[in-house]
Amino acid sequence: MIFEMYTHADRLVYLQNTLGNKIVVLKEPDELGQVKISVEVISSIDIMEIFHAGIRFGMDEMQKVFIKQ
């Protein structure tokens, strides 16, 4: 199954690192930084990988906050 969604450009890198060629950029970032992508989902593992890519992004962003202090 292929589905389309919007994500922020900063998060796109995490999805691409996790899912590789299953991610296709459909539209470049708009003025808010949102990128339209399509994702090829072959199994439930792909959904789990999308979730974990989001977790990794969040952990990296929070780490930046704590390192600055």
Task: Detail the topology: elements first, then pairings.
Layout: E1 2-8, H1 9-19, E2 23-27, E3 34-40, H2 44-68
Antiparallel strand pairs: 1-3, 2-3
Helix pairs in contact: 1-2
What report would you give on this structure?
There is one protein chain. The protein has 69 residues and is of the alpha+beta class. It has 2 helices and 3 strands. It has a 3-stranded antiparallel sheet with strand order 1-3-2, covered by helices on one side. Strand 2 (23-27) and strand 3 (34-40) form a beta hairpin. The protein is flat.
Short account of what is shown:
Helices cover 52% and strands 28% of the residues. The protein has helices spanning 9-19, 44-68; strands spanning 2-8, 23-27, 34-40.
Radius of gyration: 13 Å
Residue share in helix:
40-55%
What is the percentage of strand-forming residues?
Answer: 25-35%
Largest sheet: 3 strands, antiparallel
Number of domains: 1
Q: Provide the low-confidence segments as ranges.
A: none
Work out the helix count. 2
**What is the typical, i.e. mean, pLDDT?**
92
- Encode the helix/strand succession as letters: EHEEH
Structural class: alpha+beta
The shape, in one word, is: flat
